[in-house]
């Protein structure tokens, strides 16, 4: 049996899935505790032969059966609370009928009410079983319906207790205790499920925020292109129409108009290249500030350790390293579960060194032919090309991109770029993905 496989699967899941899994299994563990409560009610009655073996078997087996029903109930009520399916009314009614049947059977075969101590065992099993069911059912119902279901369940519980001969005051006390237990359990269950729902909503909000940021950047780029091309294209259309009319009349001015059209088209092409180049350029200080803000918004502590002022670096060096910071921050957000990210900048031997390190490397399930440890050595999506594109960009400017060995669970990328770049190299542009 591969013991490490569940660990790898756990580390490969995201925070919302982990939170929901913890909530789900905490609910299961509480449901499984119901037979333990029944055994505690038995106490020392079995050893003193104060209760029949039949009553013991019915109580224990019935409690286990009711606990299994509550576990099955949690499997459908939690998705209903999270809004993934309709409210499981049928499941709730079936589990309630089973709980009442188990408690009533224990009351029938158990000791009858009287002045002796063992008489309190059977009514206790009935009220505890109903209390666990009411708490479990509250997770799949709206608060008003949960309250109505609780009142109906307590009313049905009172019937066998009164038929068994308990006094009305004793029945009232048992029902009050059962109601308080169900209320406490229901509040606890709904609070845990609410936490899971909030985590899912935060994850969805984070995805929405990323999509809005991309949409806003596209809008800005389209607006800049419209401003640059709108007037020039209109002028080209008008002058082309004028040249057509002049050519039909045999006027020599048509050639002058087409020459002007050619000049405007070349000017438009130059302006478009400037817009695209400005859009694709990256300022190191701006990228570091933006990465720090985005990481902090994602609850990732960002540490900056600069021994060199980014503003003092050459413009081309800033642009290349700015893309390194942007790609590294993107990988931290998309492909890790980091709690800390450090960005370091220094100069050494005529070169500038940029390091980005995070502690959120996720393990992926091992596949055939893959690393037997199941750990992604890059910390990024195997299908992506971000690091490869950065390595090609740095190599074009005489630099290098390395992924040195780091501590377990951490990922570090190191970019090295000479300060004196060849003047003939063009300004960096974003690599094609």
From TrEMBL:
Region (Disordered): 365-385
Alphabetical list of CDD domains matching this protein: HATPase_UhpB-NarQ-NarX-like
Keyword Ion transport set for record: no
Chain ranges of the Signal transduction histidine kinase subgroup 3 dimerisation and phosphoacceptor domain: 217-284
Pfam short name (any one): HATPase_c
Biased composition (Low complexity): 369-380
Top-level lineage group: Bacteria
Membrane-spanning ranges: 21-42, 54-78, 90-109, 121-139
Record's keyword terms, sorted: Kinase, Membrane, Transferase, Transmembrane, Transmembrane helix, Two-component regulatory system
Histidine kinase/HSP90-like ATPase domain residues: 321-420
Entry-linked InterPro entries: HATPase_C_sf, HATPase_dom, Sensor_HK_TwoCompSys, Sig_transdc_His_kin_sub3_dim/P
GO molecular function: kinase activity
Protein name: Sensor histidine kinase
């Amino acid at each position: 049996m591969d013991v490490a496989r569940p660990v790898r699967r756990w580390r490969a899941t995201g925070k919302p899935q982990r939170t929901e899994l913890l909530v789900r299994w905490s609910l299961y563990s509480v449901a499984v505790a119901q037979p333990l409560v029944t055994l505690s009610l038995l106490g020392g009655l079995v050893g003193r032969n104060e209760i029949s073996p039949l009553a013991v078997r019915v109580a224990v087996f019935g409690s286990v059966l009711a606990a299994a029903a509550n576990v099955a109930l949690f499997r459908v009520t939690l998705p209903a609370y999270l809004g993934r399916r309709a409210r499981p009314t049928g499941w709730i009614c079936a589990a309630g009928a089973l709980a009442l049947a188990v408690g009533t059977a224990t009351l029938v075969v158990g000791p009858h009410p009287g002045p002796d101590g063992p008489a309190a065992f059977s009514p206790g099993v009935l009220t505890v079983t109903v209390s666990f069911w009411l708490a479990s059912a509250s997770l799949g119902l709206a608060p008003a319906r949960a309250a109505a279901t609780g009142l109906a369940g307590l009313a049905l519980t009172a019937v066998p207790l009164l038929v068994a001969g308990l006094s009305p005051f004793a029945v009232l006390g048992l029902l009050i205790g059962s109601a308080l237990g169900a209320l406490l359990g229901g509040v606890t269950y709904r609070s845990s499920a609410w936490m899971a729902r909030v985590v899912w909503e935060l994850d969805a909000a984070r995805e929405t925020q990323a999509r809005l940021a991309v949409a806003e950047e596209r809008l800005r780029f389209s607006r800049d292109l419209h401003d640059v091309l709108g007037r020039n294209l209109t002028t080209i259309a008008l002058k082309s129409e004028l040249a057509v009319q002049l050519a039909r009349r045999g006027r020599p001015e048509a050639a002058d108009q087409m020459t002007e059209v050619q000049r405007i088209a070349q000017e438009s092409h130059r302006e478009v290249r400037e817009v695209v180049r400005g859009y694709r350029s990256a300022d190191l200080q701006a990228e570091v500030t933006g990465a720090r803000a985005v990481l902090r918004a994602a609850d990732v502590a960002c540490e900056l350790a600069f021994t060199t002022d980014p503003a003092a670096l050459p413009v081309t060096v800033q642009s290349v390293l700015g893309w390194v910071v942007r790609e590294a921050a993107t990988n931290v957000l998309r492909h890790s579960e980091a709690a800390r990210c450090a960005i370091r900048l220094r100069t050494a031997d005529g070169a500038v060194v940029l390091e980005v390190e995070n502690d959120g490397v996720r393990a992926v399930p091992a596949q055939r032919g893959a690393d037997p440890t199941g750990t992604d050595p890059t910390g990024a999506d195997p299908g992506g090309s971000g690091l490869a594109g950065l390595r090609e960009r740095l190599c074009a400017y005489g630099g290098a991109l390395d992924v040195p060995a780091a501590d377990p669970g951490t990922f570090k990328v190191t970019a090295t770029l000479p300060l004196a770049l060849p003047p003939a190299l063009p300004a960096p542009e974003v690599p094609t993905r």
